[in-house]
Amino acid sequence: MIMRKTSYKSIILSLGLAALLLSCSTSRHYQRETISTDGLFGSHATDTANLAGRPWQEIFNDAYLEELVAEGLSNNLNLQMAIQSVREAEAYFLQSRASLLPGINARGTGTYQRNPESIYPDGPREASTYQLGVEASWEVDLWGKLSSSKRSAYANLLATDAGRKAVETRLISNIATAYYSLAALDAKLAITRQTVKNNMDLVETMKVLKESGRVTGAAIVQSEAARYAAEVTIPDLEQQIRETENMLCLLLGRTPGPVERGSLPDQTAVSMLNTGVPSQLLDNRPDVMQAEYLVISAFEMTNNARAYFYPALTLTASTGFAATALDELLDPASFAANVLGGLTAPVFNKRANTTRLNVAKAQQESALLGLRNTLLTAGQEVNNALGLYESTVKKIDLRQQQLIALEKSVEYTKELLNYGSATYTEVLNAQQSLLAAQLNNVNDHLQQLNAVVSLYRALGGGWK
Questions:
Q1: Long-range contacts made by residues 85-90, C-beta under 8 angstroms, separation at least 24?
Q2: With contact defined as beta carbons under 8 Å apart, do 118 and 291 qualify?
Q3: Which of 63, 150, 438, 455 has its CA 20 to 30 A from that of 276?
């Protein structure tokens, strides 16, 4: 009885010592890095209203596009893989959290031994032992090594989830960009077909004028050449439409095929392009968030590496039954238990601990540099998208004036041709200039739509 009380006191003393040492953690607490974001957008914005805070349903005003985005968010394979990566990171985090708890194993063994007569002439010649019990082992987290590893795994989990959000924002952007490209190609195809029809009418006009002697055969040939020059681009446009549809189907997780869509004139760009302040990128843009979580993870791994320089305390305990005969195994007299505490301090570990710490510090600095680079990239993308939108607004206004002038030019030269005051080359040049301007007008509209999509993604919109 006295020995049992002594054992209990030893166990309580060991646990108390472990708890005391556990409070002596050397882990440092992470403090958010001070990173200047002033002028990141190229201007000193002060209004915190932010386009990224709006859901994507408010950014797009096309029912077909909204359905496609919803379908892509449900079926896109890259996004599904990103979700699986989050689950993988979550499993590692749960494992790191469980490492703070004791490991418990049940064990049952039976051994038979025959001793040589030359060594044991008086016996025993044969011996059997049976054991049934439970073993527990616990590494006491004296210096926060395991806690740092757990916090690092949690930061990695958050970084992986931020990566999933980044995939989501890119997916929304890519679907919208492909959709607008399809609408633009449809518009170019319609313009080209109308131009071919107009050129065919011009050929007939030239034939009539030739019969009256107002033009020569060269005019007819030149008109036909202009007609075929426009018509030959139609197969290329149709192939571009097919390839863009297939690319969009891939984003949607579909097999290749046609995509139902609206027309380009029905697409309107959001006019209120509020960028907020640059510091909001830290909490809005997923890749910036991911980069900061990676900094936190690397910081915690530096704490983990530093803890290897200090002694490690391990407590082990076992309890169960042991007997030399199987029918006596569960007898109360066969009960046994023991507790062992071991303190291990590194003396010479072939520089492994120093290397671990130096590598962790280098990785932490690299993660911080990655965060700064990601922020600079984000600022560049926001700046570029704003500049593209502003330039397209100016171009669209000028392009409309150009189109009006060219439409009048085509109309006037056709009339003058009938009266002999203009040549057929002037008519052809006017029509070709109008076609080029019409196609460029489509490009301007597409650029404006893409600028809004790019700005929305650059600010971190779409995942909320």
A1: 85/160, 85/163, 85/164, 86/157, 86/160, 86/161, 86/164, 88/160, 89/153, 89/156, 89/157, 89/159, 89/160, 89/161, 90/157
A2: no
A3: 63
- The identity of residue 26, as a single letter, is T
Give mean pLDDT, residues 357-374: 95
Q: Is 334 exposed, middle or buried (0-12, 13-18, 19+ CB in 10 A)?
A: middle
**Residue of 3, 153, 39, 143 whose CA lies nearest to 92:** 153
pLDDT digits (tens, 9 = 90+) for 298-336: 999 999 999 999 998 899 999 988 888 888 888 888 888
d(CA 443, CA 308) in angstroms, rounded, equals 61
Q: How crowded is the C-beta side of 351, counted as CA atoms within 13 Å?
A: 3
DSSP H helices, 338-423, are 352-418
**ω before 55 within 30° of 0 (cis)?**
no
* Vertex 37: Cα angle to 36 and 38 (nearest 5): 95
- pLDDT tens column, 43-61: 666 677 889 999 999 999 8
Instruction: Give φ, ψ of 331 to 5 degrees.
Output: -70, 135
Distance in Å from the first CA to the final CA of the chain: 65
φ, ψ at 336 (rounded to 5°): -145, 155
The phi and psi torsions of 126 (rounded to 5 degrees) equal -130, 145
pLDDT tens figures, 169-222 = 999 999 999 999 999 999 999 999 999 999 999 888 888 888 888 888 888 898
In a 13 Å sphere around the CA of 338, the CA atoms on its Cβ side amount to 5
Spatial neighbors of 240 by CB under 8 A, at least 6 apart, are 185
Task: Report, in this order, helix, strand and coil percent for the chain, each rounded to 5.
Answer: 65, 10, 25
From 378, 388, 386, select the one nearest 447 (Cα to Cα).
388
Rounded Cα gap, residues 87 and 200, in angstroms = 62
d(CA 211, CA 94): 89
Percent of the chain scored above 70 by pLDDT?
93
Beta-sheet strand order (sheet of 335-344): 103-114, 126-140, 312-323, 335-344
At 50, phi and psi to the nearest 5? -135, 130
Give dist(CA 443, CA 429) in Å, integer.
Answer: 21
Q: 154: closest CA among 200, 106, 96?
A: 96
For the record, the structure tokens of 338 come out as 């023991």
pLDDT-derived band of residue 408, with 50, 70 and 90 as boundaries? very high
